[in-house]
Amino acid sequence: MAEIIIVGVDGNSTSMKAARVAAELAKATGSVLRVVTAFGEDKTEKVAIGNDEWFLSTADEAERVAQRVAEELKISGVKTEYSSALGKPADVLLEEAAKLDAKLIVVGNVRMQGLARVLGSVANAVSHNAPCDVYIVKTDG
């Protein structure tokens, strides 16, 4: 069975930079890349335009982000999977890594500067608590 590399994404450009690096690592090692998105609360909102109504949920949106990123990365020839889960991003990544016995978690460093470093960033929390190796991608420049 192939080893698993996990990358956390939220749809922004810095997380995409980390995801691309994770895809390169997965391709080079023959690993499966698991794209993971977290969402803070499961809210559903009704949107009406004319006679049409849609229900939008944060859970569905998080799943769509993970799916979109996984599909984009699959083009490079890497095997991808995706998931989303309710919780803080670091907690979701750590739980997913433990559940899947992941070999590596890839995160960006964008929130490791200044006050965010003191308060605790995703990269900081993951690097201190991960059940596997952690690769921190320089995404801030």
From TrEMBL:
InterPro entries referenced in this protein's UniProt entry, alphabetically: Rossmann-like_a/b/a_fold, Universal_stress_UspA, UspA
PANTHER family registered for this protein in UniProt: STRESS RESPONSE PROTEIN NHAX (PTHR46268), UNIVERSAL STRESS PROTEIN UP12 (PTHR46268:SF6)
Organism: Arthrobacter psychrolactophilus
Family that this chain belongs to: Belongs to the universal stress protein A family.
All copies of domain UspA, residue ranges: 1-138
Protein name per its UniProtKB record: Universal stress protein UspA
Pfam entry (one): Usp
